[in-house]
Amino acid sequence: MNKEIKSIRGMHDYLPKELKIWNHIEVILKEVLTSYCYLEIRLPILEKTEIFQRAIGDITDIVEKEMYSFNDRKGNSITLRPEGTVGCVRSIIQNNLLHKQNNKFWYLGPMFRYERPQKGRYRQFFQLGAEVFGLDTEDIDLEVIILTNRLWKRMGIDSHVILEINSIGSKIDRFQYTKELVCFLKKHEHLLDQDCKRRLYTNPLRILDSKNKDVQKILKEAPLLSKYIDISSSNRFKNLCQMLCAHRIKYKYNSNLIRGLDYYNSTVFEWKTNKLGSQNTVCAGGRYDSLVQAMGGKKTSAIGFAIGIERLVLLTKSLKIFSEEIEEINIYIIFIGDNNKHYAINLSEEIRDLYPNLKTFVNFINQNLRKKIKNAINSSARIIILIGDHEMKKGFFVVKDLKEEKEYHLLKHELMIKIQKTFQLK
Ligand code: ATP
Ligand code: MG
Hints:
By secondary structure, the chain is of the alpha+beta class. The chain has 15 helices and 16 strands. The strands form three sheets. Strands 1-5-6-11-10-9-7-8 form an eight-stranded mixed β-sheet. The chain is elongated, with a radius of gyration of 28 Å. The longest helix is centred in the first third of the chain and has 20 residues. The site of adenosine-5'-triphosphate has 18 residues, from strand 6, strand 10, strand 11 and helix 11.
C-alpha cells in the first residue's frame, strides 16, 4: 500500500469487529454513570492552547512535549485536547452551570498526546471522563471510588484491578516537600536516568512516578510526602480510608502516587492492573479544588477521574470474558428475480417496523440463488426468507431456520409470529 495513505503513527482505526467490545463497555459505563445521576456533556476537541498551558501546568509532560498545537488561519494557537477536565471546567464556567443542583458530568471522546506509541499508549486514544463540582467532603471521594468499583464489577474485571490511593495535600505542602525531595535526589543524581535528571530541574515530583526499577529503588529511601500534608488533607484521607474499609473496597496506599497534571490536590487515586505491562493504569483521578477559580470561575471544589478505554478493551480481551459471537444479521432476505425486489424491501421494512431491534439484511447482490444461500449461511443469520415468483403468486414465504435446520412455508402473519417466537420478542 502507498505509504502516504496510511493513518498517522499512533492513531488507529476502530474496526467493526473490535467495536463490539467497545460498545459493550460503553453501555456499561453509561448505565452506571446514569445510575449515579451523572449527566452527559459534549465538548469541543479543539481548545485555545493557553487554557491547557495554564491549567495543566507549563512544566508537565503533557504541556512540555505531548500537545498537538498549531496556529489557525488567524494565527491563534489552538490545541487538540490532551485531556477532558480543562475543557469541561471551561464549559461549566462559560455556560454558567454551577448554580444547578446536580453538578455531575461525564463525557467520552478522543484525546491526543504526542507520546511514543506502544501497547496501551497511543497518540489518539479515548477517555471516559467524569467530573463532580461543588461537593467538598470525602463522601464524594468515596462515592466516586465506589462508582468506579461498580464499573469493574459490571465488566467482570474487578478481580484484576487494584485501587491505589494517596493524598498529595495542597500546592504549598508540595512546594515545601519538593525542596526536601530535590535535596535528597541531588545526592543520587548520578544514578538517575536522563528523564529523571531533566525532571529534577523541571518537575521533580514526577520522579516519584518513575517506572524505572533502579529509580524506584532510590525512592525507597526518599523523604515522604505524607509528612508534609496539611491537617485537613490528612484528616480527609484518614476518613476516606476508613470509609473504604467499611464499604469493603480494597486499596493500597501508595505514598509515591502523584498525578501528572498540576491541578490536582488532596485525594488522588488510580486503578491499576498487572495484565497490561507498564501501561498498567486503567483509571486515574483525584480532587482539583482550585482549578475552577484559577480558570476564572467562583471558588468551587471538584473531583474527577478518567478511564482509558483502549486499556479497558485490552484488559477485557486478555481475560477472554467477552464473547464476540454476537449475530451481525438476524434475518437474511433473498429475492429471486428483479421483479420481486420491492416485495423484499417492503417485507424488510415491515419487519423493522414491528421489531426494530432485529438486524434485517436484504441481499441486493447480483448472484445466483445457490451463492446467495451460501452467503446467508456464512453470515450466521438465524433465519433466511426466500421470495420467488412462485411463492409470491401463492402468497407465502419460504423460511429457513438455520438453527433448527427446518424449512417452513409461511403466510405473512405466520412469518411474523415465527420471527417473534424465534427471537423471543414481545
Ligand atoms: P500514564 O502514566 O499511563 O502516562 P497519565 O497519568 O498520563 O497515564 P491521565 O492523564 O491520568 O494518564 O489519563 C487517564 C487515563 O487515560 C490513564 O490512566 C490511561 O488509562 C489513559 N491514557 C493516558 N494516556 C494514554 C495514551 N497515550 N494512550 C492510551 N491511553 C492513555
Ligand atoms: Mg502520560
